[in-house]
Specification:
single chain, alpha+beta, YaeB-like fold, four-stranded antiparallel β-sheet, 4 strands
Length: about 80
């Protein structure tokens, strides 16, 4: 699942970046904790970097769902 704000952020990206991020989101469905995933300190959630972009997400193993909360550039802190 992708939250509405994250979907808007994805929609505003150039097509090549959009499709790269969508592929990574699909991969998270199969493996929600890839080697490069980092837990966000002080918050519930995980992040992975895809090029210059950051995906912030949560997952529920029992339900088998991944929820993308945010998509942003690394420099946008």
């Amino acid at each position: 699942m992708i939250t509405r704000p994250a979907a808007r952020q994805l929609a505003g990206l150039p097509p090549e970046i959009y499709f790269e991020l969508k592929d990574r989101i699909r991969e998270l469905g199969a493996d929600p904790l890839p080697a490069e995933a980092e837990q966000i300190e002080g918050k519930q959630g995980w992040r992975i970097y895809v090029g210059v972009h950051r995906l912030i997400y949560t997952f529920d193993r029992t339900a088998g769902t991944v929820t993308v909360l945010d998509v942003s550039r690394r420099s946008d802190v």
